[in-house]
Write a structure and sequence with these properties.
229 residues, alpha+beta, Fumarylacetoacetate hydrolase, domain 2, six-stranded mixed β-sheet, five-stranded mixed β-sheet, 14% helix, globular
Amino acid sequence: MSFVFDTLAIPSVPVVGSHARFPVHRIYCIGRNYAEHAREMGAEAVSCAQPVFFLKPADAIVSNGGEVPYPSATKELHHEVEMVVALQSGGRDIEASRALDCVFGYGVGLDLTRRDLQAAAKAKGLPWDIAKGFDASAPVSALRLASEIGHPSRARLSLRVNGELRQDTNIAEMIFPEAEIIAELSKLFELKAGDLIFTGTPAGVGPLARGDTFRAELENIAVLEGRIV
């Protein structure tokens, strides 16, 4: 098979303790998965509510330690720290009881958001893809293998910007834990090896400016550091 132009490099994420990298197929994200964040964004979240999903392009990945360019068309770039789940297998209509069998590993990431564009789209009842799915909008740490660390149900998730603590929670506070997220996503998409799932952000989202440094941490599992340029 030949192509009309050279194919682009496959987006990928490093794996702790390995020279091999995790190839990224799709990036799925869930919104309003922490009640306090839902309230700070003007929405009420309840445990029985239908989850809200959106996607980012695979090439929005920025590997740990990389410089993150401040995006165009916004004056309000916001951080959203999240636990990231990486899949080694998938399928459709996966039962929650076996969903964790699909997990390759865990990391931490930032769901960067052009908040002003999101607010304007919401006000008009329009989709807000451009607020979420822009270039370099998904910085992600190296992944830790689930076979080594298990499947965390409790772990501190935090973000510091210029050394100041901005977001701080425990993943036990998620409305939909990772097994339920995988099960619900598989009703809408055929999940595949290489998929990343951003599992939602806690309260405390806020602005990032050029020159800011950040450190995101999923306690005892992953650290992500970088700089806005």
